[in-house]
Amino acid sequence: MNHDQNFKNLILDYPRQALRFFAAEEAADVDDAAHIVPIRQEQLQERLGERFRELDVPLLVEWPDGRREAVLFALEEESTASRFNIYRLAHYCLDLAELFDTHRVVPVVIFLRGQAAPAKLALGGDHHRYLRFHYLACELTTLPAKRYLASDNLIARLNLPNMAYPTADKVTIFAQAVRGLLGLEADPDQQAKYLDFIDIYTALDDNERDEFERRYTDEARTMNSFAERFTERGLQRGLQQGLEQGRQKGEAAVLIRLMERKFGALSAAQRRRIEAADVDTLLVWSENILTAERPEDVLS
């Protein structure tokens, strides 16, 4: 399970709601006029080189009218708190501060599973502390799910299964997460994407799924229609790909046959090149045969 990628997708798809949920204290001043821009990972890779930390998701919050200085949020998900490295995060935040020439950097760590993790870092000698560092921590398993059952923040609703709740409420938690997604997200593709997210982190067993379908018939019907729709779409896509592959193989075989009748046997490299070409290229090469004097002229 790639939890890092799951949460990275979540933050990039819904950055404003992610900040309001995972970093509520600092995001309180991020109003609707602010622009939230994900910083391109390629840019950081190029600028930071070996110091680049791939799993962090940096978001730049800017106010177009210039009334406030931009602020960088560095969000990181840790599936297991014991793997968290506070030195790594501090180093990364210093990298970002230097790269963007700013002191306004907010580190945020999302802990999927609650375990002990260092909350602060202090460097110094016998008389003074010369560097102090801490971060905003969102420990999902310590948040009471009942507080967010009716939240209008999609990030909160999607993460209901990751919060604290009695085992007996598992089906209800699943249903409220599904209701939140269907009510707060209108895009069918995004709905399908995050129905899968909810399903993964709730992990209903067969009995619980049967209970969900009995108690929440409308939501269950919607989920089943999504499953049928995307299964059908997958079959159609597979059929289309099969037809395209069949056409490509047919065009390649015809071209090889025509070239060998005109020029004699082709080399193994020429045959491989033809067999690897797409349909449009094969059609152009087939036209080239009419005026070509050598195989190389056809494949030019």
Describe the protein in words:
This protein has 2 domains: 1-142, no CATH class; 229-298, no CATH class. It is built from 13 helices and 7 strands. The longest helix has 47 residues, at 217-263. Helix content is 54%, strand content 15%. A 5-stranded mixed sheet has the order 1-2-3-4-7, sandwiched between helices. It has helices at 3-13, 15-22, 24-27, 41-48, 86-100, 154-158, 170-184, 188-202, 206-215, 217-263, 268-276, 279-288, 295-298; strands at residues 35-38, 57-62, 71-80, 105-113, 120-124, 129-134, 136-139. A hairpin with an 8-residue loop joins β2 (57-62) and β3. α7 (170-184) runs antiparallel to α8 and α9 packs across α10.
Low-confidence stretches: none
Judging from the principal axes of the Cα atoms, what is the shape?
extended
Strand content: 5-15%
Widest β-sheet, arrangement of strands: 1-2-3-4-7
Count, helices: 13
Helix vs. strand class: alpha/beta
- The radius of gyration over CA amounts to 27 Å
- Please tell me the overall pLDDT: 85
State the order of secondary-structure elements, H for helix, E for strand. Answer: HHHEHEEHEEEEHHHHHHHH
Compute the number of structural domains.
2
Largest sheet: 5 strands, mixed
Distance between the termini: 46 Å
State the total count of DSSP E strands: 7
The proportion of residues forming helix, as a percent range, comes to 40-55%
